[in-house]
């Protein structure tokens, strides 16, 4: 009863451990296992489905208690008890390795793997936080953060399992999104500290690419963080300030001071994680945890001790096999990550056979607005007309002023040839000075607006062609989108690569299946009955005989692991041949995406262009009215100035004395 209604604190953890240990003592003495004489029905509720599951097996009681122990430690860990995540991981690991996974779906191998890696990931997070607060070396912090990424990647793989997805339902999507966000976030932290290390080593080109990578990964994390609490958003914003500042500063320094070549990220050594946390082991027979064995007098302890020794032999066998599997899996995962080959999207040819939905949406929107292009063209024409009228009016005003200035200059030159009149010449016309001032103001406004008008026309001309295309038949839109052209050799290279990728997946699946078979064999392997009747001196021989049952499946696993080298070599060769095809497909995909984005941008620019065009028409219509009035004013002022000049000229001519008669030339006398 205490274990079922356990308090949610460390006292509760102690109660669960004690009850688990006493169950272990009990099941080694009383036949309460599945289909045994003293078996009783044991019922628990599945955590995810809410269904009641009943088994007549004492191991089911132990498994549920162990699951709750892991769950309680995870709750205490969430309350900032830092060591609890490792305790939780230990409980789930023991449950995964020592109990059947068929009791209930929430104890499946994938779910337990998910829980273990979530716990270890969070424990490593705590260590990362402490390392950063302690100002540990940048390279160490980067490796600790990279290990957080590794744990969460394993958790993500478990989440992507179809059985896990169907069990968790909506929770699976939320958890997967959160785990993926954390993967990108801690990858960004790792590369931030690799950039810091490059800075310390004065490798300024490497510093730029690491900070750039950190920025890219952080942006991906921010995309996945939509819907997360404000505390998460604040943390992401703070990190963006740090990484963004680091990147901008590093890039500026390298561009203007150091001028080091910036290497490609994939040419640099990858950051290998440093696992500094571990699942704390569960020992069901530790007296310090279980207390005194209350069933000690029921059966001989020798049989129990021998059974525990055999269990340890089985556990050792499993550890040895799993060490080899995990080592190969790590090599395989790193290799596949470096290849960046996804069997589902390795050729992505299907995307070119149809118009993308976002473009279809724009085509559909334009189909119900057939006058879109016509309206834009008309708006351009009206704007051009008003613009031309304003320019003509201002030019005429300028010509009038220049003509008036020339006439005034001419008059001054003429006045200079005759005796100047008494007093000063008449001042320039106030009307013309005002016209000149206003004309200069309008010309300045017109010149500024002219640049904007030119840019607007360029934008219109850029988008009109795209809008015509989107308004036309869908066949023309599809034809305008780039598509790859592959030769027969290219197709053969592609098919060969996909075939080998299929072999890789087949190898993975077979390895997982063999591992599962081995675990199930170990779980079902109970020789307690034999141990009771076996002499103590014969125990070692009995263990050796019993362990031979695993030889065949170990051979199959060894063959599977040995095949990996040949499969990866074949994949490497196929990938080399695929490089040219991959580059061509990537270029076409880039062009395809660029074309789609350009067409969408043209559609979205339409309303803005119409608005700016209308604003331009309103502006120039107003300016045209002002220019027309100023033109009339200029004409009147010029006429008045001309009349004034004529009066001045007439007055000056009247003041001139009449010309004197000239004397005849003297004649020369003839000799």
TrEMBL record:
One of its GO terms (biological process) is protein transport to vacuole involved in ubiquitin-dependent protein catabolic process via the multivesicular body sorting pathway. Its main location: cytoplasm. Residues 387-417, 497-524 form a coiled coil. Residues 1-332 form the BRO1 domain. Transmembrane segments: none annotated. Keywords: Coiled coil, Cytoplasm, Endosome. It is found in: Cytoplasm; Endosome. It comes from the Eukaryota. Residues 642-671 are annotated as: Disordered. SMART domains: BRO1. This is PTN23 phosphatase. It comes from Thalassarche chlororhynchos. The gene is Ptpn23.
């Amino acid at each position: 009863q205490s274990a079922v209604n356990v308090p949610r604190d460390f006292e509760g953890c102690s109660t669960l451990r004690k009850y688990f240990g006493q169950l272990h003592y009990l099941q080694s003495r009383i036949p309460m296992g599945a289909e045994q004489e003293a078996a009783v029905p044991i019922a628990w509720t599945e955590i995810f489905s809410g269904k009641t599951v009943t088994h007549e097996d004492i191991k089911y009681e132990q498994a549920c208690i162990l699951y709750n122990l892991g769950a309680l430690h995870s709750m205490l860990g969430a309350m900032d008890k830092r060591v609890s995540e490792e305790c939780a991981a230990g409980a789930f690991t023991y449950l995964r390795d020592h109990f059947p996974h068929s009791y209930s779906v929430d104890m499946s191998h994938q779910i337990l793997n998910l829980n273990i890696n979530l716990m270890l990931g969070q424990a490593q997070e705590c260590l990362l936080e402490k390392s950063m607060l302690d100002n540990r070396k940048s390279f160490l912090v980067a490796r600790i953060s990279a290990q957080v990424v590794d744990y969460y990647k394993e958790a993500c793989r478990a989440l992507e399992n179809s059985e896990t997805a169907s069990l968790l339902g909506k929770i699976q999507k939320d958890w997967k999104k959160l785990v993926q966000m954390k993967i990108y976030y801690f990858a960004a932290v790792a590369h931030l500290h690799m950039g810091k290390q490059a800075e310390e080593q004065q490798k300024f080109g490497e510093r730029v690419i690491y900070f750039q990578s950190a920025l890219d990964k952080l942006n991906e994390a921010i995309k996945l963080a939509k819907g997360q609490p404000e505390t998460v958003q604040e943390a992401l914003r703070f990190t963006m300030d740090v990484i963004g500042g680091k990147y901008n500063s590093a890039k500026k320094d390298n561009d203007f001071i150091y001028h080091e070549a910036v290497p490609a990220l994939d040419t640099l050594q990858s950051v290998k994680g440093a696992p500094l946390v571990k699942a704390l082991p569960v020992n069901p027979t530790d007296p310090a945890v279980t207390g005194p064995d209350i069933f000690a007098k029921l059966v001989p302890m020798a049989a129990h001790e021998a059974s525990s020794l055999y269990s340890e032999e089985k556990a050792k066998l499993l550890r040895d096999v799993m060490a080899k599997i995990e080592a190969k899996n790590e090599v395989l995962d790193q290799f596949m990550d470096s290849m960046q080959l996804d069997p589902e999207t390795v050729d992505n040819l299907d995307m070119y056979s149809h118009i993308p939905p976002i473009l279809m949406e724009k085509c559909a929107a334009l189909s119900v607005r057939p006058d879109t292009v016509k309206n834009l063209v008309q708006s351009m024409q009206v704007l051009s007309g008003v613009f031309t009228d304003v320019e003509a009016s201002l030019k005429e005003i300028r010509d009038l002023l220049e003509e008036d200035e020339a006439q005034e200059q001419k008059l001054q030159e003429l006045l200079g040839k005759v005796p100047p009149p008494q007093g000063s010449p008449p001042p320039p016309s106030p009307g013309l000075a005002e016209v000149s001032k206003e004309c200069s103001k309008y010309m300045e406004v017109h010149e500024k607006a002219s640049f904007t008008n030119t840019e607007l026309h360029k934008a219109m001309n850029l988008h009109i062609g795209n809008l015509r295309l989107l308004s036309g038949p869908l066949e023309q839109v599809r034809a305008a989108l780039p598509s790859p052209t592959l030769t027969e050799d290219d197709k053969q290279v592609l098919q060969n690569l996909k075939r080998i990728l299929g072999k890789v997946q087949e190898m993975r699946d077979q390895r997982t299946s063999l591992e599962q078979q081995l675990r199930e064999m170990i779980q079902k392997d109970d020789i307690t009955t034999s141990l009771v009747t076996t002499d103590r001196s014969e125990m070692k021989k009995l263990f050796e005989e019993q362990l031979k049952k695993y030889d065949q499946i170990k051979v199959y696993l060894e063959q599977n692991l040995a095949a990996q080298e040949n499969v990866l070599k074949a994949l490497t060769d196929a990938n080399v041949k695929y490089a040219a095809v991959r580059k061509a497909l990537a270029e076409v995909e880039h062009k395809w995406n660029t074309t789609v984005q350009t067409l969408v941008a043209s559609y979205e620019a339409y309303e803005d262009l119409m608005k700016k065009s209308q604003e331009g028409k309103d502006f120039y219509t107003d300016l045209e009215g002002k220019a027309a009035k100023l033109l009339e004013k200029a004409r009147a002022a010029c006429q008045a100035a001309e009349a004034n000049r004529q009066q001045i000229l007439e007055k000056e001519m009247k003041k001139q004395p009449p010309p004197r008669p000239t004397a005849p030339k003297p004649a020369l006398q003839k000799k």
